[in-house]
Amino acid sequence: xxxxxxxxVTHREIxxxxxxxxxxxxxxxRNLRKAVKILDLLLAIPPRRPELVRERGLVRLSLxxxxxxxxxxxxxxxxxxxxxxxxxxxxxxxxxxxxxxxMN
Length: 104
Hints:
By secondary structure, the chain is an all-alpha fold. The protein is elongated, with a radius of gyration of 16 Å. The N and C termini lie far apart (58 Å). The protein contains five helices and no strands. It has helices spanning 11-28, 32-43, 50-62, 66-79, 86-103.
C-alpha cells in the first residue's frame, strides 16, 4: 500500500477505469461487438485518445465494418501522422480503401 493510492479521484477517472476494465474483459472473451461499444464510450470522454481511435478501427475491421474502420484509421493518421505504427496503419487503410472500391 502506498499513500498515493488514497488520493481522491474524480468521477471521470472512476468511469474511465470501469470502462477500461470492461474493455479488457471483452477483449479477453473475444467479444468484439461489446468491446467496440466500450471503445465508443471511452472516446466520448474528453480528451479523445488517438490510440483508442486506432483500436476501434481495427476492431471494426475485424467486425467487417469496413467504412467505419476506414474512418477511424484515417482519423488516427490525421491525429498522429508520425506515430511508430503509422506505416502499418497506412497499409491497412490502403487495403481497406481498395476493398471498399471493389464493393461499390
